Amino acid sequence: MKKCLLSVAMIVKDEEHNIRRALESIKDIADEIVVVDTGSTDKTPEIVKEYTDKLYFHPWEGDFSKARNQSLKYPTCEWVLIFDADEEVKEDFKKIRNFLENLPNDVNTVYLPTLSYLDWDLKKTEVASTPRLFRNGTVYYKNIIHNQPVYKGKVMNAPFTIYHYGYIWTRKLRIQKYNRTRNLILKHLENKDLSPVERIYYLVQLYKTENISKYKNRKIEVGWKTLKEIEKIGKIPGIGLEFLFLFGMDALNKENLELAENLFNKAIEAVPKYPDPYYGLIGVYEKKDDLENQYKYAKLFLEKIEYAEKHPEEFEWTIVGFKFKGSANAVITSYYLKNKDKKNFEINIKKTIEFAKTTGENIKRLINIILQELLKINDIDFLKSIKSSYEYILNVLVENNINIDIWKTAFKFLDNNIKIDVNLLEKFVESEFQRFVIKSQKEGGDFLLEFIFKNDFENNIKTLNEILFLFKYFNGPKEKLLKLLASIRKNFSDDIQGIIYSLIGDIYLKLSNFSAAISSYKKAIELNKDISNFIKPVLDDLKTRLDPNIDGVFEEILNYYTKHKELILTIDADEIELKYLNLISNTDYAKYVASINCNDIDRKLGLLREIENKDEFPFYYYRLAKIYEEKEDFEKAVSTHIKACEENHKIADLKLGMYEYDGFYPNSTYTFMKNSDKIVWCRNISEKLSGFGIIHPIRTWKKTENFYYAYPYPTDDAIKIAKKRRKKLIKDWPFKISDEIIFNSLAELNENSIYIIENEEVPEYLLKELEINNSKESIALFSINTIHVEHDFSKIIPKHIKKGIIIYFEPNFDDKDDIIFFNPEFRIIRSTSQIKKELTKLGFRTKKISTVKNLRILFFEKD
To answer: What region holds the Glycosyltransferase 2-like domain (predicted)?
Structure first.
């Protein structure tokens, strides 16, 4: 007779959609199947009867442990397996019989891993090891929900997995499960006899249950309670480890990095083999933008996960990290990419995708992580070396039908003359610009005009600038351009038609059709008298000789209508299209536009240097100077800025556009100025504030021990003229000090007689209201901005002064765009610490400093 080795004990209710799968999987392994039905109203009992005659009915009494204990009354075999209707076992579970037969007699309990599926695709999973097998008669259950077995004797772990489908819920089942479970847990927590560990167990179960609630605050409230309970007992039970990870992730998502890191480290300290908190630490260091430590913990996480996969029976709590292997490996891949480790990058990019396919992780998200790191790589040789890996990524996206914007990285390769499989790239094309890039890669050629005018010249050329642009960059047969100009001419007013006729005349001239050229030029003058000055010299030349090499009128007209403008035409396109315009056109225009829309300083410089006809771009040297600023090559920045002003006089007054560059900017030199003084700043100040034609537009700030000074250093008269012009022209001056600040400062001095420097800055009515007399003999000093023009501090404060207030501006020295640096009326800047040192040298102490944004009000008095 076959030995009765293994019974299965189940409790069920309305499980007709699950029960057959469970029973079918276990029927050939168990000697006996015992089922307790707690009130099914569906076909569950009928299905059970197909597999066993040991079906018993007990009414549901709201207590899982009671139902479980009822099911344990009926088994007759040596071992009892606790099994649920929403579970199944696989073929390898048959080996459990041999395992049980060879167990020592003093072992009564066996832990088995349960793998829970979390989605309908059966890719997202979590694993926990729980007691499932007991010698008959050695166990009973307690607690009304999440019932816990109470057993005696030795415990063993076994690697026989049970597969659980119960977490794949419909919305209705989710709500029902939540309400039922929450109410039972809350009822159980009312039990005053719970031990601290039991209380923590049920708080964690409640915390996990609240995760599916619409009341998000409930979960966090339970989380804080649970954490306090763990801290009270001074040790971390198994389920507490799971909680530390989950609550740590909540803290991480709220960017409370200190709490998250502390919780993860506590879990690791308690059980170093537990993988999940290592994954949490990857997230912490991701928020800190620390790839080095992300890599460190990703490696550790995958090591621990591998161990947990081999020994799931050692973990008595749920492990969720199995579903994050791809994410961790994406970090490792990014690390190797950043460090230009080609071999390991290629290995791990494939590993990441393999992991994601088994875990169900979002491949699109993982590839995005890697592509973002790829964008930071500027080493052309390394980019060339990983071309095949990049194409592998593209193939993965195609194979998995993933729609993702790969063009930033694709453009990076193409821009560095690294050819990518065009047929592969073509599968990602979504925009017209991308189509032109592909066309350019396949055929060569220039597609600038086709892109700008959307392949429809007649309907999309609507302005004079567009006509001039078309004429300049058209690279097809002249006859075709003639036909096109003739076609679009009728869409414009007479004056613009006149310009078009002049351009038609230029084409006929180059084609040696002198009769048609002369006729077109005359028609142009008839329609637009303003351009006759450009056309008449050409007609005069044609009277003396019929020569196609005579210069036409285009350049004169172009200069007349677009003089000093940065571009003939500003394109309405996406930023990335402008940035890589050079990929569809080899024109100087495309290179220039790509350069000024680019953030990569070396690429910007490289593109500008490729431009052959620099004179065609009035802002060429200005843009070049801005690059030298970024590089902090201030000597080159200064000389290039000046050249920019010389080539285009309008650049001397970008703010107002009133004062052209003429070189007349009175400045002074002093003995304190040394050639060795370090330049710390260089700009064209008219980007923000006009120099009013008297202060040099190109300024540097040089640093000495006691202050910063402007170079060129404007004279007193130049500053006076600038102020005078500014007061006439500028209504809202950013350095205007409010009457309230002046009033409060004067009142704080509490003197009837005050020596007021820069007295024109102080309204007369305030002096009358405060009954203050402005006197050089006073012991009190009031100064507004004097320290911004006087380099010798001792000249600011006469020897008889006993106290005073200095009002001044202090920039953020780390912000090169701080407007204080641009003020044309300032030639000295001091930091507050430098001012305090100067005051100390003169025998004063700083009594108080007030601030209003970048304004400082410093009260000083004699020691």
So the answer is: 7-110
